[in-house]
Design a protein that fits this description.
Layout: H1 2-49, E1 56-58, E2 68-74, E3 80-87, E4 92-99, E5 105-112, H2 126-129, H3 149-169
Length: about 170
């Protein structure tokens, strides 16, 4: 009876160890490629925000707002890019915003969101984000999207945090 119990447990343990070893080898072989792909996609997104940039380097500063998850500076000094999170109506929004050295928005895009389709998603449409280009930290003249007030306020709050980060790292 003991033999009937030990043999299957031993076989399953050996199978688990073998599968674990195979997964570890696969992960170590693919991790650098996955990381390089992530970096390439991130660089592509950054270049969509500031097309005039040659490349980007990460920026670190002690006084960045908590909502700013990443900051980058173009190597040819045409602007800074900030990735900011905000709590919209449907959950977290992830926004990427480029700001010129003069302190004006170059371009903004929504990377991720969970806003209500057809209502809250209007803040992610190009019609709204195009109105942001050229605006400074005052965000004057930008009004909330009708029916999507919470989403709009979250988006504008994220932009305000991006400008706070800009002030912390410029120069």
């Amino acid at each position: 009876m003991k033999k009937d119990f030990v043999a299957p447990v031993l076989v399953l343990t050996l199978i688990c160890l073998l599968i674990t070893a195979i997964l570890a080898v696969t992960n170590s072989a693919t991790a650098p490629k996955i990381e390089a792909d992530k970096l390439a996609r991130a660089n592509t997104m950054l270049l969509e925000i500031i097309p005039e940039a040659e490349s980007f380097e990460p920026v670190t500063a002690n006084a960045l707002p908590a909502s700013v998850t990443q900051a980058y500076k173009s190597t040819n000094n045409v602007g800074l890019v900030f990735i900011v999170t905000a709590d919209g109506y449907g959950g977290e929004m992830k926004i990427i915003c480029g700001i010129s050295p003069e302190g004006q928005i170059i371009s903004c895009k929504t990377m991720e969101h969970n806003e209500t389709q057809g209502i809250g998603t209007r803040v992610t449409d190009e019609g709204f984000t195009e109105t942001l280009a050229g605006k400074d930290a005052s965000l004057e003249g930008i009004s909330a999207v009708s029916g999507a007030t919470i989403s709009s306020k979250a988006y504008l709050g994220a932009l305000a945090d991006a400008f706070d980060a800009f002030e912390a790292v410029k120069g």
